[in-house]
User: Fold these one by one.
Assistant:
Number 1:
Amino acid sequence: MTHKCKVLVVGGGVMGASVAWHLTQAGAAVTLIDQGSGNVPSATAASFGWVRASASTPSDDTNAFALRLHALEEYTRLKQTLGALPVTVRGALSWGETTDETAALIAEHLAAGSRVESLSAAQVRQKEPSLAAVPDLAMWAPDDFALEPVDLARCFIQAAQANGATVLSGTVQRVLSAGGRVNGIEVQGQVIEANKVVLANAYGALALAASAGVALPIQQQPAVLLRLDADRNRVRHLLCAQDLELRPGKERGLMSALDYPLEGEAGLQRLAEQTCQSIAQLLQLPSVPRILSIEVGQRPMTSNKQPLCGPIGTVEGLFAVVAHPGVILAPLLGSLCTQAVLAA
Ligand SMILES: Cc1cc2nc3c(=O)[nH]c(=O)nc-3n(C[C@H](O)[C@H](O)[C@H](O)COP(=O)(O)OP(=O)(O)OC[C@H]3O[C@@H](n4cnc5c(N)ncnc54)[C@H](O)[C@@H]3O)c2cc1C
């Protein structure tokens, strides 16, 4: 197997798929390679898919907040160029433990330029009639939406292929370089030549960058995606009720994103059961819903929380894109990475 390509993208999750498509849109010859999910779901496959500025507040991290606002604008551009996006639900309702907490959240978002509104209990009841108890005050974010991250990655990849990209399956073992320049990758003992390589394979980028002598400041952090067998029509929007994140699934059931339990894997079943009980109470379900799946995804994170997007180390032609939250940021970083690759 000997392929010649100008740019080789490693990783077909939402980030690599976005990079590959943006590169082909800019006229580059692209090969994308992914190892396939096997037993370990990619972060994209286990993702909740909430696209929102309200993932953080300005006081949490001013730069991250500004970046997310910018990233949301990129979704508008994407819709115009890529076509209809795989959106499952639009609009998000959030509230805290107390009315004061919610009021402070709304005030902070309004001051920072987020398009959010205050909703009274009656307005919340209208939006979500199944709620057992409604808060006196909630934050309504009409521009938030949830999409299916795997479908989005598929849309990017299909559109990249339509632009001429080649898509391969295989595990990349190392980056090859000579004289300070990238000249390819090794995939299961075989060489694929390339003069530019983009590592968009999440935490896997650590080992591949190291194979070219570059240390990347990245880690992975687990999070849990719970799928429940409950009537998906019980929830009409995205809900962030205190700490519980909930939305309807694509075709059936409900989905909830959870922090990984402190006890580790041993605590997963209990966490899932407790969440099912909380959801049954929240939505006045006739019985506690059955668990369809508990998926643990490893979120790729950078040490300084800023996205890694562009050339890395001193090896010419080597780039990386690793960032959190990746679904929100994928369109923006796909575009920025493309500019960096083409400028080099
Ligand atoms: C439970 C949960 C909820 C989340 N909720 C949200 C949310 O609401 N909003 C949001 O924006 N983000 C969310 N995230 C984070 C988001 O899902 C990730 O940031 C994003 O999916 C990362 O995409 P990625 O393409 O960088 O990585 P991945 O999706 O992990 O893709 C990396 C790809 O690289 C491939 N690969 C790895 N190593 C190699 C190799 N050596 N050779 C070939 N291929 C390789 C893998 O097969 C994989 O397909 C959530 C994550 C989790 C787990």
Note: The radius of gyration is 21 Å.
Number 2:
Amino acid sequence: MLLELDHISKIYGDLHAVDDLTLTVPAGQWLAIVGSSGSGKTTLMNMIGCMDTPSKGSVSLEGRRLEDLNASQLADVRKNMIGLVFQKFYLVPHLTAVENVMVAQYYHSVVDQRQALEALDRVGLKDRAHHLPGQLSGGEQQRVCIARALINCPKLILADEPTGNLDEKNERIVLDLFRQLHEQGTTIIVVTHDALVASCADREIMLNHGVLVGEQWNNETAREAYEAAGGKPAFTGSTAEGAQRDGDAPVAFANPTKAAKTGDLE
Ligand SMILES: Nc1ncnc2c1ncn2[C@@H]1O[C@H](COP(=O)(O)OP(=O)(O)O)[C@@H](O)[C@H]1O
Ligand SMILES: [Mg+2]
């Protein structure tokens, strides 16, 4: 498995932002994490992306437990393995699109303008390469962020509400990019409360108050491959079998959006 979360919790005082979650994600899977605002999605992403550590439990990437790595090894994992895409774009306002992409190269290895331009070309923005973020639409800015996330060829893309600030047309463009990445074998984990975005993923899990409350598959082939490789359903609490015995195993949700829409969303 590319990613293994083993009974992870994030606890702030009395609040369990993520509560004893076990989840495995194989290389190449496209997973959506859905849930209402405050359900722990960003907290979970931050722990997967080595930006935060769990209060309990462990996170492993490619079989390496993150808690066993020192600061420089963790920095290497962040730089080499993970590409991050956020709802807010976090572009440097006084740098052009291509320079923003080159900042990511700088932190990774060496800057290479030709490669940065190619990355912008991949997201359809070659002719906007020398524009400042303020001269780009929201959709274009998000595509710069995706180019930036892709520059180091990460195995894992973590995207937190990547289409949250986009109109429908730009949402489609971003989803098409994710679809291409998925076809090329990139593992994608996307946090979203948009049904359309979630439905593009192979698999969806739903959180509520940090607890897993649902899991469903949108891609039967991916499900069969996952199960054949020994993949288990995600679960909260003790063991999956124990949870089922106790009658609180997550149930498949027929319509995640409908469920998500009943909560108050960000
Ligand atoms: N640094 C923090 N300190 C205290 N509480 C936090 C912190 N970060 C997140 N929380 C709380 O954890 C819960 C989950 O937050 P978050 O993961 O951001 O939810 P989501 O991304 O699903 O909206 C919320 O109740 C939030 O207020
Ligand atoms: Mg969030």
Note: The chain has one domain: 3-262.
